[in-house]
Amino acid sequence: MLNWHIGAMIAVMVWAVAGCSLLGGGKSGSEAVVNTPPAWFFSPPTDDGRFWYGAAEAVTPKQAEEKALAMIASRLQTTIRSRSQQQLSVSTLNGREQLQRQSSQSVTAESAALTFNNYRVMQRLQQGGRHLVLLQVEQGPFLRQKEQRLQELQQDIELSLAQFKRQSALRQLKQMAPLYAKIDELELLQQLLNAFHRLSEPIDIASQRRALQQAAAGLTFSIQGASGWRSISDVLREGLNRERYTLVTPPSRGQSGVNITIEVSEQRSKVYGNFIVKLFVSLVAQDGLGEAVASRNLELSGASALSYAAATQSAVSSLQQQIAQQSVLTLLGI
Length: 334
Description:
With 334 residues, the protein is α+β, with helices and mostly antiparallel strands. The protein folds into 2 domains: 178 residues, Endonuclease I-creI (Roll); 112 residues, Lipoprotein like domain (Double Stranded RNA Binding Domain, 2-Layer Sandwich). It is built from 10 helices and 10 strands.
């Protein structure tokens, strides 16, 4: 009986201690952590003609700032319609060839034109594992910087185009992509400054693109070498014809000519009754003055259960697939 009373008393004491813990152990309302973002995050100041504002959150302060700047850039993109597409078509002098280019403002051009080098952090807050920021970009210095960049870029493009016309055909081809990127950035800057009435005189972007397109449309190609490997020469000719380049015989002379020389060696083997062929193809592109500007070594493999001829055709077909997926010039490394 005594043991029963002692056990009951212990149980009552344990219950009492537990009850006190439950009643007094929690945090008061003033100590509770509140994770509600501040008002400036949900409703940042509106763009007022002098400043642009952007608020964002991310796992690091730097990422939050980048996201806020990206939000400002996105609003500017909408303002200047930076993603409008243009269909450009240019005919060569003989009227038979056409070069078309479907272009939109490239990501590179957008990044270059809408880079904010100076901004101010108005608010910064950390909540849990997230960082919140409110940024301010002053319009005046930003637009003045872009005006200076536009002038520098315009001079650079004009100088490049003047030199471009005096260079060999292959060197022109190698410079086309970088020049197109600069022209895209120039156009985006012009649209940006025009949207904010900061452009004194429009730039003829279309004429700059036409200069590049006419140079490409006037190129002529010739293919030589590969004695006994006419199938490979035919594949390259088909690719150039499909890309609307002019093929000539004999090799071109002068600035506008591109001559492709082919050399082929073959390796044969037989494995488990299958015929295996490896073709080692060397492609060298020279301008009309004989200067080698681009070259490429290819290894083409083919297999067949029928014959070496069928395996060779399989290897040549792999070259056709490569050209179909890219282009002859890309294959050459231009």
